């Protein structure tokens, strides 16, 4: 009798052990199951989401097939069940393990936006409005309100923000990015002003921004920036008008239709450097760091003029006669 009971217990133990082993394999297989590719590559896990809630979310997204075994994953591998709120990229995930590891890591996906040099503040606002997963708080704000919100004691933000690629996590405010851009520009401008060439005819850091914005609009060729800066510095030293088309275009505003005419050059505006002496009242674009540095450290040249050379760069001239010859050459290239 005792032998029979012992045999029964042995058999029951074997069955239970076999069942446990089979269940272990099922849970293990559920961890390694492939996920289904979906159009939306981002997974947003809200605060307070449980492990079972995440599995349900993945089922609803169509990423994961429903399985009774997934609920036990936390018992088998507890680290995979540590849910951290955030938005994650699952574009490269191939299995459920991959997805769970990404969420457990807490490393949210870093979105990026490149705010371009040479653009106006209005262009930046449009870019921010269309950026993915960025919270838009500036839509109903005036420019002066935005300036106040990011800690800038100015009314107009043109030129005050540093163009570069900014990274952010989902739900970040566009104001937060603008605040970073402002801080970066102020830091750059402060250092540039301290290291400026003592001979430049610029009275303060704001005039550096104005000059840098003009340089930015005149050339995108890095090795030309200091030369372009030298032309404008030389003209300021001599009391000559700057006579730069981008300032005229900025002054025309919405009236500019893509073509600049002789009458535009003769029409006075606060920004028309063909009719005013000195700098325009504000920057005309967002200058790059390279243009800011060129504004404080111009090349030492005797140039007073420059014109496009038809090859993406410019021809620089010391005299008006040389300049006129360069203009004729450029016009000849255009006709060809």
Description:
The chain is 47% helix and 7% strand. The chain contains 13 helices and 6 strands. The protein has helices spanning 2-31, 51-61, 73-76, 96-105, 121-129, 143-149, 174-194, 205-218, 225-238, 245-252, 262-266, 289-296, 320-335; strands at 42-45, 86-89, 111-114, 165-168, 305-308, 314-317. It has a two-stranded antiparallel ribbon. A two-stranded antiparallel sheet has the order 3-4. A two-stranded antiparallel ribbon has the order 5-6. The protein starts with a helix and ends with a helix. Mean pLDDT is 90; it is low at 13-17.
What is the element layout, followed by pairings?
Blueprint: H1 2-31, E1 42-45, H2 51-61, H3 73-76, E2 86-89, H4 96-105, E3 111-114, H5 121-129, H6 143-149, E4 165-168, H7 174-194, H8 205-218, H9 225-238, H10 245-252, H11 262-266, H12 289-296, E5 305-308, E6 314-317, H13 320-335
Helix pairs in contact: 7-12, 8-9, 8-12, 9-12
């Amino acid at each position: 009798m005792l032998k029979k009971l012992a045999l029964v217990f042995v058999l029951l133990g074997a069955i239970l052990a076999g069942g446990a082993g089979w269940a272990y394999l099922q849970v293990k297989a559920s961890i390694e199951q492939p996920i289904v590719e979906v159009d939306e590559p981002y997974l947003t896990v809200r605060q307070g989401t449980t492990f079972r809630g995440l599995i349900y979310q993945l089922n609803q997204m169509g990423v994961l097939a429903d399985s009774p075994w997934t609920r036990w994953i936390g018992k088998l591998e507890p680290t995979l069940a540590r849910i951290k709120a955030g938005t994650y990229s699952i574009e490269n995930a191939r299995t459920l393990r991959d997805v769970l590891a990404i969420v457990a890591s807490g490393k949210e996906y870093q979105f990026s936006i490149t705010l371009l040099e040479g653009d106006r503040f209005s262009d930046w606002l449009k870019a921010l409005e269309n950026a993915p997963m960025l919270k838009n708080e500036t839509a109903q704000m005036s420019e002066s309100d935005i300036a106040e919100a990011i800690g800038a004691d100015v009314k107009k933000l043109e030129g005050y923000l540093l163009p570069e690629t900014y990274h952010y996590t989902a739900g970040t405010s566009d104001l937060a990015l603008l605040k970073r851009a402002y801080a970066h520009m102020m830091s750059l401008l402060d250092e540039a002003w301290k290291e400026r060439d003592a001979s430049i005819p610029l009275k303060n850091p704001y005039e550096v921004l104005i000059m840098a914005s003009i340089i930015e609009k005149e050339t995108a060729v890095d090795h030309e920036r200091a030369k372009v800066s030298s032309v404008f510095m030389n003209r300021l030293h001599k009391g000559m008008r700057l006579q730069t088309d981008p300032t005229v275009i900025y002054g025309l505003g919405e009236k500019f239709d893509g073509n600049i005419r002789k009458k535009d050059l003769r029409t006075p505006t606060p920004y028309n450097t063909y009719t005013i002496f000195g700098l325009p009242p504000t920057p005309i674009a967002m200058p790059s760091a390279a243009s800011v540095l060129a504004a404080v450290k111009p090349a030492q040249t005797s140039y007073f003029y420059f014109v496009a050379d038809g090859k993406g760069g410019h021809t620089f001239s010391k005299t008006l006669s040389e300049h006129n010859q360069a203009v004729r050459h450029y016009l000849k290239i255009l006709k060809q």
